[in-house]
Specification:
It comes from Halobacteriovorax marinus (strain ATCC BAA-682 / DSM 15412 / SJ) (Bacteriovorax marinus). This is Membrane protein. Keywords: Membrane, Transmembrane, Transmembrane helix. By secondary structure, the protein is mainly α. It has one domain. It contains 5 helices and no strands. The termini are far apart.
Length: 116
């Protein structure tokens, strides 16, 4: 879990660099994850690579705390859906979408409740 948080935060911070952007930052962190996973057998590189999808969020839309919450929700969604979607593509993207979308919904609900 800690490694996934680090991967999403590193992608998020690298995407703020003007000449890198979110796609290149996810690719760079993904390559770094692959190289590290060659030496560390206990790392699940696919889960970490999916965490970089969460980190591709725009810094104009999501702050760091929301990114951490989205990554935790991504990990939960991935662990639940992994059993049902084995062999089906798109699990990483769908899990990261669920994490980020849930954060947006929770933020909207929080703002709505504060207005009352």
């Amino acid at each position: 879990m800690v490694y996934s948080l680090f991967a999403s935060l590193l992608t998020y911070e690298l995407s703020k660099v003007s000449f890198i952007g979110p796609i290149r930052s996810s690719s760079l962190v993904g390559i770094l994850i692959y190289l590290i996973s060659l030496y560390l057998d206990f790392l699940n590189s696919s889960i970490l690579f999916g965490a970089t999808f969460v980190g591709m969020c725009s810094s104009n839309k999501v702050n760091r705390i929301e990114l951490v919450i989205a990554t935790i929700i991504y990990l939960f969604a991935f662990s639940v859906m992994e059993r049902y979607f084995s062999g089906v593509g798109g699990l990483l993207g769908m899990s990261s979408f669920i994490g980020v979308c849930t954060v947006f919904i929770l933020r909207a609900l929080h703002r709505k409740l504060l207005k009352r």
